[in-house]
Amino acid sequence: MAWRMLRRKDFHSGLLNLAFRASRGGEKHFSDGAIGKLAQFYRSDRPKHAADCMPSNHFNIRNFHAGVYMLAWSRKKEDIVGLKAPKKEKRVKRENRTQPPVEAPYVAPKPKTATKSPDKTVDIFDGMTLLDLSKRTGAYISTLQGILADLGEKVESEFDSISIDLAELVAMELGVNTRRMHTGEGTNEPRPAVVTVMGHVDHGKTSLLDALRQTSVAAKEAGGITQHIGAFVVEMPSGASITFLDTPGHAAFSAMRARGAAVTDIVVLVVAADDGVMPQTLEAMSHAKSANVPVVVAINKCDKSGADPERVRIQLGSEGLLLEDMGGDVQVVEISAVAKSGLDKLEEALLLQAEMMDLKARIDGPAQAFVVEARVDRGRGPLATAIVKSGTLVSGQHIVVGAEWGRIRSLRDTAGNITESAKPAMPVEIEGLRGLPMAGDDVVVVDSEERARMLSQGRKKKQEKDRLRKIDEGMADELEINEETPERVEMPIIVKADVQGSVQAVTDALRSLNSAQVFVNVVHVGVGPISQHDIDLAQACGAYIVGFNIRTPPIAITQAAARANIKVLLHKVIYHLLEEMGRAIVEKAPGTAETQVSGEAEVLNIFELKGRSKSKGPDIKIAGCRITDGHFSKSGTMRLLRSGDVVFEGPCASLKREKQDAETIEKGTDCGLVIQDCDDFQVGDVIQCLEQVIRKPKFISTQSGSVRIEC
Ligand code: GDP
């Protein structure tokens, strides 16, 4: 690019030749950046050592000197490529020729990074032909046959069909993402709805889930004691049932969706009757809308004296939610999670909604399911709660879950009872996995242990490849950012949470706080309480420890953290955690230096100090001013304006109030001001005091509830 510009500018042929030569072969390091450095070198008061500018072995700087430097100065032009100074905003009067030329910072041209090609995702299905796969992936039939042969499968004709697992293995080998399409064949039968509870913080999501859980099958069977496995089922007297996802919150919902796990059929939007529509209510609405999931509104806390459900209805209506009472189709139910009133009505509304949606799924055949939560149990190993989308999951089957695999040792329902199989919309806890999967991972049934192992290995390899590629891209992004903002500090964070789903949601949310000045680096994540290992790691890399929904660490750990000066943040609400982390990030950010007008004064009088001896220097002009706005500091730079034009700018030589030297002078006060090397004051001129301030980034929380750091 630089070379083209060089030609366009009809640059000195010597430079062109040299630069061209340098851009090739052994001098390939002599790139745009090097030219920039050279330009900087000649524009500045040359450093003592040429090596300060560039490696000495690149080429002889002295030879180049004649080309660039002489040309630049002989032409008295600065618009030569790489030497162009940014346009000056103000006219600065130079009083004497002893002053050096105004030095403009060299702005390196932004490197053009290769555009990132978006990831390719192809749909695959059981029984697809080799030709199908070739068309979708864009690979030659012979290439596919080669990969299949390596996998120990011989496929002769392009019209031969292959299994969905083989198709995935081949696609992974080609570096292509896949989306598994499952056949709708088999009898489709009605299935229960899967419901997620969302809403603003403190509006009663957890209380509602607790109240509903107590009416759940598990609570009825286990005498009111339920274990938290990520989902529970409420059975109605009619025999119908509803599956509730147990993790309230939007981050978990969007993290699942981001992984392609669209398990939610209906969203219950909880709005407190005494508080009304709040930012996270709107956020929940937009989440549901973008996921195309219908909403049932639960106006909670109706038992409270300040409750005003009507107001909530009007607010929701004005936000575009077409409520049933207003002629729309969104049902509204008034409830109290604490007084446990209206819960039956809510359940009925959900059943009605599900009925309208005519939810059906294939019952027979291999299951397709999604993980909603995963944890490690000391005695039982990795456990994943999955909700079956279609088919039937059967104990003993070989499965691949995300990048992990295993053979189902046992399936437990939400009451903790061992069950032989799980049908659509039924949450089950899977035991027998080799590793811990993540919330949102898909569960697929495969024929054999070998196939499970191969798929898991392939997926792990692909994940690693993607991870490395992302790091590469991240580094490229970082380079770009570094061009504009030279300083970027790192904020290492360790995330510990109660379950895998929360770990993921918190990590994703924290990464949304990444900014040009602070790089949020989640160095370690884990399920469970904060351990000594976490403290050691945090100490080693100066990390914050974030604990989400975990119990308070024991005294020994707290003390160890305090001794090592490690910040430990414990929260149960993601938004609160982000708020605190946002504040810490803003504090840590280096900020950007900015020139601000701190005050303005009007010149009322001009005094001249004449007849001074030679030894005391030349005559001095003093501007007698009144500060009309802000304040003046002696350390500031003074800008003299006449009829709005800048006439002079320079440091303050003297600032006095009633003949006394002053450091700062406030608005409304008269003062005497001398600007270094300036004797051009006129009555009526305006003087501005400019101060350098460090502007820190801002933590922004938007109306929709999302957060970011703005630099
Ligand atoms: P979440 O942040 O949305 O999960 O809200 P919580 O379920 O933690 O509830 C926040 C607070 O509101 C708690 O102190 C609850 O006891 C209270 N709360 C929740 N539901 C009701 C209700 O129906 N009536 C009353 N009076 N208080 C409630």
UniProtKB/TrEMBL annotation:
Stretch list, region Disordered: 94-119
CDD domains reported for this sequence: IF2_eIF5B, IF2_mtIF2_II, mtIF2_IVc
Chloroplast in keyword set: no
Pfam families linked to this entry: EF-G_D2, GTP_EFTU, IF-2
This protein's record includes keyword Nucleotide-binding: yes
PANTHER family: TRANSLATION INITIATION FACTOR IF-2, MITOCHONDRIAL, TRANSLATION INITIATION FACTOR IF-2-RELATED
Record function comment: One of the essential components for the initiation of protein synthesis. Protects formylmethionyl-tRNA from spontaneous hydrolysis and promotes its binding to the 30S ribosomal subunits. Also involved in the hydrolysis of GTP during the formation of the 70S ribosomal complex.
HAMAP family per the UniProt record, alphabetical: IF_2_B
Protein name listed in UniProt: Translation initiation factor IF-2, mitochondrial
Upper classification of the organism: Eukaryota, Viridiplantae, Streptophyta, Embryophyta, Tracheophyta
